[in-house]
Every structure is written in structure tokens, then in C-alpha cells.
Amino acid sequence: MKAMSIGLLGLGTVGSGVVKIIEQHQDKLMHQIGCPVTIKKILVNDPAKERQVAIDKSLLTSNVDDILDDPEIDVIIEVMGGIEETKDHLLHAIRNKKHIITANKDLMALYGSQLLKEATANECDLFYEASVAGGIPILRGLADGLASDRITKMMGIVNGTTNFILTKMSQDGSAYEDVLKEAQSLGFAEADPTADVSGLDAARKMAILSTLGFSMTIDLDDVTVQGITEISEEDLAYSKKLGYTMKLIGLSSRDGEKVEVSVQPALLPEHHPLASVHNEYNAVYVYGEAVGETMFYGPGAGSLPTATSVVSDLVAVLKNMRLGVNGRSAVAPQYPKTMKQPSEIHAKFFIRLHVKDEVGVLAKITMLFAEHGVSFDKILQLPLNEKGSSEIVLVTHHATLTEFEKIQQKLNDYEMVKEIKSTYRVEGENGK
Amino acid sequence: MKAMSIGLLGLGTVGSGVVKIIEQHQDKLMHQIGCPVTIKKILVNDPAKERQVAIDKSLLTSNVDDILDDPEIDVIIEVMGGIEETKDHLLHAIRNKKHIITANKDLMALYGSQLLKEATANECDLFYEASVAGGIPILRGLADGLASDRITKMMGIVNGTTNFILTKMSQDGSAYEDVLKEAQSLGFAEADPTADVSGLDAARKMAILSTLGFSMTIDLDDVTVQGITEISEEDLAYSKKLGYTMKLIGLSSRDGEKVEVSVQPALLPEHHPLASVHNEYNAVYVYGEAVGETMFYGPGAGSLPTATSVVSDLVAVLKNMRLGVNGRSAVAPQYPKTMKQPSEIHAKFFIRLHVKDEVGVLAKITMLFAEHGVSFDKILQLPLNEKGSSEIVLVTHHATLTEFEKIQQKLNDYEMVKEIKSTYRVEGENGK
């Protein structure tokens, strides 16, 4: 029986994991697909280099066309990273009628719609489960759920580095800079952590998730992004005191046909399932009109978890090939995109202020909120070490982002308000 | 284009939900499957009865053969419940080459293997996602994961009634009997709650999950079961004090080819993701050799969540029909079953004792554990109101069930030990 031939672009940690899993699970794959699976060629920078995995050196090539133009190769697995050049390789492969599996979130966030369109036109499959949340089968879960439901909201902890940092800061009361160094030494943060701590990596994943979940083309530019670099130990201590846990939350929500997609540090009630997602783990909390609330949890990165997702995609592609039904899985976004305006975004807000320690300060501040129709869930006032100052922490009931921003502007103008130290959204309360 | 015709057995809350979803999502279903879907006949006890759902009365029948023998019906959805008679109906339908979707855990736990075998022989699909954990796509998740991984352990909160009761007992410090009454008045527990509180319902689901996850025929008789009726407020208070949360845990684990499947109240570290599964929610925590730890969370019951799972199964069956590949999904268990002996079961244990308040009691007790090679993680001794008595709570490090049972026998013989009040397993620590 003819074997299915795979071309692998990249042999880093994920690529090595894919090689290992395909070798170790050959029997199971055969059982499910009905034919053997072989890796025919692997693209590497330097075929002569010593490798961690035992690999037949004759499979290695540094010329990508050896793979893209090989008529015997049915499926391309892309685990090399990169954006522009990689996109060109994949477009070339698709035009050669090859099916694609990619773990590349940067690529999918920028060129996902284009690649999916091209794949559909060429009756090719394009699967990208590993591009969001490593080992968690979230895209498959969404696609299945979509069959008979309407997704109204997704909240995701989709970046392991920032979740590791926030978990440690929260548990140990340590400062951001110290924990970042620890994360770097443990391999949970890169030497240049910008893409992670700025929220960009999470934003890419939320663009991919939202495009699928809402069936609209959500671009990276549509995602409002705020990272974790400004979070202080004080913010975390107050969160805890008020019964919240701080997480970097990717949020996609829809009211009617209007959507919001954002990434920001937010407070969750400490009993919310997302609040128990610790360290480098990821999770996506999904609200469906019929199914209610579900959550998918697991490792968001790592060689073997990511490789496992890639191989699950491979099985799906190979089954489709045996059935002759490739190219039907990539459903083009069905709905036009309308982003919510700030006046249409409703949330609870946390705000921490330093004020002058004078009579009537709290009354004046709460009056300002009342004038904007905003009431309070929680109020805390404490003296500061700094003489003549005190600290006020407020958690509002639901308000629009517009009203909350207007209130902040006015607070800045008040002579008694020394500084607005921080503001955060509060999410996940009352089943919202 | 010819429509796919469905026969529905049962029109209770889940059946009505299925009717509603198929009507409301006709466009989406058409988009995915490529043809319309219609419900042709519905089995009910009394076709004349008034119903909550608007339904064409000409579809209703009280004669099951009108459905089972209708050559135009392609798929049977069974949401009527019952075991022996229902099994006979489904076998009859399978022999008439009809595909089956069932939400019936009682049936699948007892006759799943037989039904799957018959379905495979007749090239029919038999899907049963809704039989375990209502709206959570756990069976699909396991089946996907299995493609390229090996599952070593599953821990499940798979019964909503008992989780609701334990959550309330834990939060409010209330007694079991009081919370049970509250659960009954809220509709989270049935008038006769025996199947839930005895652990039987959870055991049925763990038998179904383990059969799929380990690819072995695990019968209900293979599952060791202990319910929640003996849990006291004191046990919950001590759990909390020691940093644990008590849950009714379904546990399937495998070392080499030997497995344990059990249901019992167990203590989890309060930061474990399963510890945040509150009220009537369900979750299954899965350990895979490659993927690591993943969790699937969602509503374990309810009309619409369960109906959503049923319709997801329906989409899978209908896609298979269009592709002409039915009957390949039910993979017969591949491995022989070997259950672990008590000497092969390793766990940490919690034990609470009432002892005479004498010099050297704790020393004598800890010595006994040491003689059996068992050391301690946590020790707590407190005076009791009862004069001359004190209470000792111990949490061991890992020990075999055999050694722990031997120790309990000896403790019972000690004159200074008044009573062993309770023992529980401690699970979910250190990534185990």
C-alpha cells in the first residue's frame, strides 16, 4: 500500500517532536488512516549539523524547492516560523496542491484569510490547531461547537510567558522585573520578551480565535492590546484583598453583530475557573448560546504538546485524503465585521487613586461617578505612608468604556487627585 | 436535494431541545452537510398530550416500529432513557442499518460494547457524546488526542448533583441532609437521589470514559464506588484548613497495562483546576504522555447543552453518510483488561481519628505508620470538646492501598484509638 509522504519545514523542538511522534505511533496512525505515513524530506539550515534526534541525514535538505516541488509529497508541515518568506513557501505549496499544517500564529494572524482562501480555491486543507494554545484542541472544539450553537464570548489565557509571570508575582509578591528574570532563566520567557509581555502574541491568537469563532475576518489591527509591564505589586495585592485574581485576558465578545476583541490585564473572581490556570498553562473559556459555559485547558506551548496538535491535524488531513474531501474544512468568514465603539463596551472597572487626605474627598469622587450613572460594587480607602495622602480603590458596577474614560479625565483635573495609579477591567462575574 | 430523515425516540427536555436546535440552525446544518435535515417521526407515550414545544402532531407516534422499520429514516436519536427495552429498540434499528445517536449513559455503561460491536458489523455509526458530561465534548477530545498520544490518567467531576451538594456544603458549612433538600428544591437533585449520591451515575460515566480512553472493555463492575453520603462538615472543614477541596472524583489510571477505575470523595489541592469546578458544572482532567495535562470543562447536564452534543454527533453522522464512511468510528477495544490489585494502587491518604488524650498517643500512631514504611505530609492534633479525647488528622505521603488498609486494621485494635472517623484519598498533587 502506498505510504502518505510528508514534507517537514523546520527541525527545531516542535519539528523534532513531530518526527518522534510519527515514528512512535506508526501502528496507531496506520490503524486510523489505513496506510503508512513517512516523512520524505526535511528543510533545515545546515544538513551537516549534529542533531538531538536520530535522523536519517539523507532526508535533510537546505533547498525548500526540493520539498515544495516534489510531486510525491502530499502534505507540508510548517514548523519553521517566520512570516513573509514562509507565507510565500506555503502559497507555492498550495498552488502545487499540497495540504498544509502550520503551527505559526504570527503567519496565521497576518495572512490566515489569504492562505485559507487560496487553500479552498486549490481544494487543499489548511489546518492550524497548534497556532493557538499549543496542545489544547480549542479550534476543533470551536468548530464542533459551531455546528449547532452560536458563540457569544471567549475569554482566553493564551500566552504562557505572561501567565507564568503573573502567577509568580501574585504568589510571591515579587516585582515584575525580578519574575521576568526568573522566567527567562527557566526558559519560560525569551531573551527579548517584548512580543509576549506587550500582549502582541496573545493578540495574534485572539485574532485567529475570533475569526473562527465569530466567522468574521478579524485582523490584528482590530485587537486593542495592553500588556503586563505596568502591573505593580500593589495592584496584585489589592486584587487579592478584594477577592480577585489578575490575568492577561484575551477577550472576544459579541452583542448582536457587533464585536470587541481585546487583550488586557483584567481581574477575575478568584473562584472563576480561569483564575485557577497557573504558571505556563493556557485556557480558553467559551460562552455558547445553547451549550452555556465551557472551558478548554492545557499546555499552551512546549515541543511535545505542540507536536501532538500538529499530528492530530495530520491525521485529519490524511483521513480527508483517503475520503477525497480535502479543502472543505476552511469555511470562509460568513459575516461582515463591525467593531464595537467604546460607548458599546460594557464592563466593571477597578480604579486605584492616590488622593490628598482631606475631608470630603471620597464623597466628591463618588459623586462624580454618580453623575455619570456609575455605581460601586466595592470601595476601599487606606492611609498611605506618604504624609497627607491616602489611597482609594474602587470597583464599579457595569458602565460603558466611554463613561469610564470621561470620569478618568475629570479625575485628572481634580486638584485633590494626585494620580490615577491604575485601572483594570473586571471580567467573569455573574456568568458574564 | 433529498433531505436526511431523523427518527427521534423521546420528546422530554433533551428531545425538545434537539427539535429546537435542528429548526433554528437549519441554515448552518445545510452549510456543513450540504442537504436539509428533517425530523420525520417522534416516539412519545401519548401523542394527544399538550407539549411545551410547538410540534406538528402528525409527526408523533406511540408505536416504536413506525420509526425503527421506516426505510426512509436514516438516523435514530435516542433520548427516551431506559435500559433493556431501549437496548432492544437500538439493536433492531442497527439491524435495519440505521445510525444511532444516544445520550443514555445507563445503557452505554451496561451494553456499550455490545451495541458498538453490532454497529460496526452493520456499518452503522453509534455516537454517544451526550452520555458523558452533557455539553462537554470530552469523548471527541479523547478520540482526537488518542490519535497521537497515550492517555495515562483521567480525573473527572462527572456528576452535577454531587458537585452541587459538595460545593454548597463546603461554602456554607452546611450538613449533607440540608443541602440535599436545597438541591432537590432547585431541581439539581432528584426526589430519589440514590443513583447520584451513591456514586453510581459517576461510575457509569467513568466506565464509558475508561473504555474509550484506555481502549479496554471496562464494565461497571470493574469500578470501585463510594458515594458522598458519609462526608461530614468536620471533614470539609479540615480539608479547607489543610489547603484542600473535597470533590467526588472519578479516577481512571494506568501503570503499564494495569488499570484502576474508581469513584470516591477525594481531596484536591485548592489550586488544582478541578478544585475550581463549582456547583453543577462538570470537568474531566486528562493526562497524556505527549500532551501533558489538559482539562475539558462545561455543563454536565441540562436540556440545551445535552441537545447541543446530540446535534454535534448528528452532524458527524450526516457528514459520514455523505462521504460513505459510516461505521468506522466505533473502534473496538484493542487491549485486554487487567485491573490493579490494592497492592498496586499508590496514593496519598487523609485519615481523621478520635483518640484518648494520653501521653504518647501521637508517637505510637506515627510509629505504626513508620513500621509500614509510610511517612507524613501533614499532621494536626486538636483537643475535642468531649472530655479526655482529642482529634488527630494525618495526611500521608504516597503509600499503597494495601499498606494503608493494614494500618487501619491495626489502629482499630489499639485501645487508645476510639474511632477512625474518616479516610480519603488525596489526588492531583505534584502533577500526578
Automatic annotation (TrEMBL), chains A, B:
Transmembrane segments: none
Keywords (A to Z) from UniProt: Amino-acid biosynthesis, Metal-binding, Methionine biosynthesis, NAD, NADP, Oxidoreductase, Sodium, Threonine biosynthesis
The protein's annotated pathway: Amino-acid biosynthesis; L-methionine biosynthesis via de novo pathway; L-homoserine from L-aspartate: step 3/3; Amino-acid biosynthesis; L-threonine biosynthesis; L-threonine from L-aspartate: step 3/5
Binding-site residues for NADP(+), renumbered to this chain: 9-16
Alphabetical list of InterPro entries matching this protein: ACT-like_dom_sf, ACT_dom, Asp/hSer_DH_NAD-bd, HDH, HDH_cat, HDH_CS, NAD(P)-bd_dom_sf
All residue ranges annotated as the ACT domain in the record: 350-425
Annotated catalysed reactions: L-homoserine + NADP(+) = L-aspartate 4-semialdehyde + NADPH + H(+)
SUPFAM superfamilies the UniProt entry points to: ACT-like, Glyceraldehyde-3-phosphate dehydrogenase-like, C-terminal domain, NAD(P)-binding Rossmann-fold domains
GO biological process: methionine biosynthetic process; threonine biosynthetic process
Entry superkingdom: Bacteria
Keyword Oxidoreductase in annotation: yes
Enzyme Commission number(s) of this protein: 1.1.1.3
Binding residues for NADPH: 105
UniProt-listed CDD domains: ACT_HSDH-Hom
Catalytic residue list: 205
Keyword Hydrolase: no
GO MF annotations, alphabetized: homoserine dehydrogenase activity; metal ion binding; NADP binding
UniProt cofactor(s): a metal cation
Annotated binding of L-homoserine, by residue: 190
Assigned protein family: Belongs to the homoserine dehydrogenase family.
PANTHER family reported for this sequence: HOMOSERINE DEHYDROGENASE (PTHR43331)
Annotated protein name in UniProt: Homoserine dehydrogenase
Organism: Peribacillus loiseleuriae
